[in-house]
């Protein structure tokens, strides 16, 4: 019996199978992690392109009506497809800087978040806005639900703020 146990201890027949059994779960976790990161990066690109497209739609007009704004806000979920549109939040605002350098909100509309109040002071990033000019600011946020919620990587927000100057006038008016 002792001789049989010693001969089993010296055998190398199943070493590869044991090594594979130890390494396979780790490799599968790495693979699934790469897939999850790829999906999150795809959502990030969609959020950026959505913010850009919505800002472009508003900046091309000189007067935005309620119907036009409703259609622009409704375009957001379509732009993030094939991802679900329900976690998408959008805020579109017009910000004007007076000649003394104070910037404030002219108007703001939102879907899924609170619009900024008219007349609210706003501090834009340096170089974005100059005195006597206005910008269209689009803020887009998307709550991404990870497939790895069970191990602590659950939800996180992907957000983008996009600024564009009006193309047809100094200020895009709101009716």
TrEMBL record:
The chain crosses the membrane at residues 20-43. Keywords: Membrane, Transmembrane, Transmembrane helix. Residues 14-55 form the TadE-like domain. It comes from the Bacteria. InterPro entries: TadE-like_dom. This is TadE/TadG family type IV pilus assembly protein. It comes from Hyphobacterium vulgare.
């Amino acid at each position: 019996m002792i001789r049989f146990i010693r001969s089993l201890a010296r055998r190398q027949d199943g070493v590869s199978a044991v090594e594979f059994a130890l390494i396979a779960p780790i490799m599968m976790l790495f693979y699934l992690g790469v897939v999850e990161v790829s999906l999150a990066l795809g959502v990030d690109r969609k959020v950026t392109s959505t913010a850009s497209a919505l800002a472009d739609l508003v900046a091309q007009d000189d007067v935005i009506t309620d119907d036009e704004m409703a259609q622009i806000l409704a375009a957001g979920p379509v732009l993030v497809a094939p991802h679900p549109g329900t976690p998408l939040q959008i805020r579109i605002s017009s910000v004007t800087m007076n000649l003394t350098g104070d910037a404030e909100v002219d108007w703001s509309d939102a879907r899924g978040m609170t619009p900024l109040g008219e007349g609210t002071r706003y501090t834009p990033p340096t170089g974005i806005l100059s005195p006597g000019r206005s910008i269209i600011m689009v803020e887009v946020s998307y709550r991404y639900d990870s497939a790895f919620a069970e191990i602590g990587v659950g939800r996180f927000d992907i957000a983008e703020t996009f600024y564009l100057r009006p193309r047809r006038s100094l200020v895009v008016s709101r009716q």
